[in-house]
C-alpha cells in the first residue's frame, strides 16, 4: 500500500508539473499571438491609413434629439464653431545628445518656466489630430526624457492624476528621470478597430485613438538616432472578476453560468478591460463646449494655479494631457461584438462613487445600479450580443469626495429632504454637477459603437450627450425598485424630478418635500 501511495504521489507531482508547464506554454503562445496581431495591425495602419470619417455609420444627431423619456424632438442641436486644424510646419531636426544615465530630479540646474514657438532648440514632432495616415498624424510626445524634452508636442504629463506621484518619485530620487519603459510582452490582449471615428477630429477629442498602439506604431522614432520616449495612453488586458453580489445573482437564477462569460456558480466573470488616460485635443474640446480655444486655455491655466504656462505661450501645441482621472471599459463577451451593428449591445456608463461602489454606503444607488449594469451586460453577451460597462473617475459628480461629504453633513444636519437635494450641493460647490458628459461619448466612438440597444442608465445628461454625438439609444432601462436602498430615495426621487428617465411617477415638489433621508443615529429607516 505504501508503494502504491508513493506511485500515486509521483503521478500527482507529474500531473501538477504538466499542468504548470501547460499554463506556461499557453501564456507564451498567447503572448506570441498578441505580438503577431499587434504587428499585423501596426503594418495595416502604416500601409492602409485609418478609415475616413465619411465612412462612419453613426446617425446625424439632429435625427436623434429626444426628451428624457425618449420622445423625438424636432429641434436641431446648436451649430458648432469650426476647429482650427492648422499645425506648425516643422521637422524632426537633429536629436538632442544623450546625457549620462543617473537619478536626477532635472535635466538642467536652471528652472525653465515655459517655452515658445520657434524658440531655439525647440522642435516638436509634427502632430496632426484627425489625420487618417498614422505616420502623418504622428505620436503624442509629452515626456521630459533628455532626448524627448525638446521634441514635445503635447502639454502636461503621462499618468493623468498619478502624474504628480511620478514627479514626487523623481524629486525623492526613487525614479531615474532617464528611465524608459520596456514594452516587451505588453501588447494589447485583444485588437479592435480601426474605426472611421479614429480619424474624425470632432468625434474623438478627449483620448488618443492610437494610444494603445503608440510604442509599436512609432517604434522607429523610439530607436536611435531619434531615441524618443513615446508611451501608450491606453492598455488592454483580460481578467476574471469576482463580486459578492454576483454569487447571489447565480443562486437566484438571474445569472446562469456558461463556462465562458459567467464561469461558475460563484458568479466569477471573464472580462476584457481597457484602461484609458485622458488626452485632450484642445480645439475639439473647446468646440464640444461651445467656447473658444483661447478661453479654454486661459481657464485651464489660471484655475490650475498657473501649473501649465505652455497653455498660454504655446498655441502651436494643440494637445494637453490633463491631471485628471481616466476611465476603464469592462467588456463582456467578444470585444469585436461591440462594433457589430447586427448584434445587440447593453451599456452602463458609470461615474465613480467610492463610498458606495467600494464600501457599500446606502445613501445613493451607485453600487446597486453598477451591479445591475454588470448583470445585464453579462446577460446580453450570453445571448450573443455585447455587454459593456464603462467606469469614469469622476468622484462626487467630479466635485470630489471632500465636497461630497460636506454636502452629506449639510443634508444630515438638516431635514434631508428630496426637494432640497440639489440645493445642498449648489450651496457648497456653486454647481450641482461638474461631470460634463459632453466628452464621455468619445470612448464609444473609439470602441466602434454606433448604436445602443439597452442603455442601463436613467441620466438625461448621459443620454443627451450620446445622442448628440450621433449614436442612437433604442431602450433606456432604470434601476429596479427592489435594488434601491431606502436611504437613497432622497437622491433618486430628486434626480427623477430633475429629468432622469423613468417609466414611473415623477413627484411634485410637494411630494418631494415629504421624502426624507435617515438620520445618522437611526438604526432602521
UniProtKB/TrEMBL annotation:
Keywords: GTP-binding, Hydrolase, Nucleotide-binding. Residues 40-104 are annotated as: Disordered. Residues 40-57 have a biased composition (Polar residues). InterPro entries: GTP_CH_N, GTP_cyclohydro_II, RibA, RibA-like_sf. Coiled coil: none annotated. Residues 81-91 have a biased composition (Low complexity). CDD domains: GTP_cyclohydro2. One of its GO terms (biological process) is riboflavin biosynthetic process. Residues 336-477 form the GTP cyclohydrolase II domain. Pfam families: GTP_CH_N (PF12471), GTP_cyclohydro2 (PF00925). Residues 110-303 form the GTP cyclohydrolase N-terminal domain. One of its GO terms (molecular function) is GTP cyclohydrolase II activity. Belongs to the GTP cyclohydrolase II family. PANTHER family: PTHR47259, URACIL-REGULATED PROTEIN 1. This is GTP cyclohydrolase. It comes from Lithohypha guttulata. The lineage of its organism: Eukaryota, Fungi, Dikarya, Ascomycota, Pezizomycotina.
Amino acid at each position: 500500500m505504501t508503494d502504491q501511495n508513493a506511485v500515486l504521489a509521483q503521478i500527482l507531482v507529474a500531473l501538477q508539473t504538466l499542468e504548470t508547464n501547460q499554463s506556461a506554454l499557453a501564456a507564451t503562445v498567447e503572448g506570441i499571438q498578441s505580438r503577431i496581431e499587434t504587428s499585423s495591425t501596426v503594418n495595416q495602419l502604416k500601409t492602409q491609413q485609418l478609415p475616413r470619417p465619411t465612412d462612419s455609420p453613426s446617425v446625424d444627431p439632429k435625427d436623434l434629439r429626444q426628451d428624457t423619456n425618449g420622445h423625438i424632438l424636432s429641434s436641431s442641436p446648436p451649430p458648432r464653431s469650426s476647429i482650427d486644424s492648422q499645425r506648425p510646419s516643422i521637422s524632426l531636426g537633429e536629436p538632442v545628445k544623450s546625457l549620462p544615465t543617473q537619478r536626477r530630479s532635472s535635466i538642467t540646474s536652471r528652472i525653465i518656466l515655459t517655452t515658445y514657438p520657434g524658440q531655439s532648440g525647440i522642435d516638436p514632432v509634427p502632430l496632426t489630430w484627425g489625420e487618417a495616415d498614422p505616420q502623418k498624424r504622428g505620436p503624442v510626445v509629452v515626456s521630459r526624457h533628455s532626448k524627448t524634452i525638446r521634441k514635445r508636442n503635447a502639454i502636461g504629463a503621462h499618468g493623468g492624476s498619478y502624474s504628480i506621484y511620478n514627479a514626487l518619485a523623481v524629486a525623492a530620487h526613487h525614479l531615474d528621470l532617464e528611465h524608459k519603459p520596456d514594452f516587451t510582452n505588453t501588447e494589447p490582449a485583444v485588437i479592435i478597430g480601426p474605426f472611421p471615428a479614429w480619424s474624425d477630429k470632432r468625434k474623438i477629442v478627449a483620448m488618443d485613438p492610437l494610444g494603445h498602439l503608440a510604442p509599436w506604431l512609432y517604434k522607429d522614432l523610439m530607436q536611435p538616432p531619434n531615441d524618443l520616449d513615446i508611451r501608450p495612453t491606453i492598455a488592454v488586458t483580460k481578467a476574471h472578476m469576482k463580486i459578492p453580489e454576483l454569487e447571489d445573482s447565480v443562486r437566484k437564477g438571474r445569472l446562469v453560468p456558461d463556462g465562458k462569460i459567467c464561469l461558475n456558480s460563484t458568479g466569477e466573470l471573464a472580462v476584457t478591460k481597457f484602461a484609458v488616460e485622458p488626452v485632450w485635443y484642445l480645439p475639439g474640446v473647446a468646440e464640444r463646449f461651445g467656447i473658444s480655444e483661447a478661453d479654454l486655455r486661459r481657464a485651464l491655466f489660471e484655475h490650475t494655479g498657473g501649473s501649465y504656462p505652455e497653455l498660454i505661450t504655446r498655441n502651436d501645441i494643440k494637445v494637453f494631457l490633463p491631471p485628471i482621472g481616466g476611465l476603464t471599459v469592462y467588456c463582456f463577451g467578444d470585444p469585436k461584438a461591440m462594433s457589430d451593428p447586427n448584434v445587440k449591445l447593453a451599456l452602463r456608463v458609470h461615474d465613480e462613487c467610492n463610498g458606495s461602489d467600494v464600501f457599500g454606503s446606502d445613501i445613493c444607488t451607485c453600487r446597486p445600479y453598477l451591479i445591475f449594469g454588470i448583470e445585464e451586460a453579462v446577460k446580453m453577451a450570453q445571448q450573443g450580443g455585447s455587454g459593456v460597462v464603462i467606469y469614469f473617475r469622476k468622484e462626487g459628480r467630479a466635485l470630489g469626495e471632500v465636497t461630497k461629504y460636506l454636502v452629506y453633513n449639510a443634508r444630515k444636519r438638516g431635514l434631508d429632504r428630496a426637494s432640497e437635494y440639489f440645493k445642498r450641493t449648489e450651496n457648497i460647490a456653486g454647481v450641482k454637477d461638474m461631470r460634463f458628459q459632453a466628452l464621455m461619448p468619445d470612448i464609444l466612438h473609439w470602441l466602434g459603437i454606433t448604436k445602443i440597444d439597452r442603455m442601463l442608465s436613467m441620466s438625461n445628461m448621459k443620454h443627451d450627450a450620446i445622442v448628440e454625438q450621433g449614436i442612437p439609444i433604442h431602450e433606456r432601462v432604470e434601476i429596479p425598485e427592489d435594488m434601491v436602498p431606502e436611504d437613497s430615495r432622497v437622491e433618486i426621487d430628486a434626480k427623477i424630478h430633475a429629468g432622469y428617465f423613468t417609466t414611473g411617477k415623477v413627484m411634485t415638489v410637494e411630494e418631494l418635500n415629504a421624502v426624507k433621508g435617515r438620520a445618522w443615529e437611526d438604526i432602521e429607516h
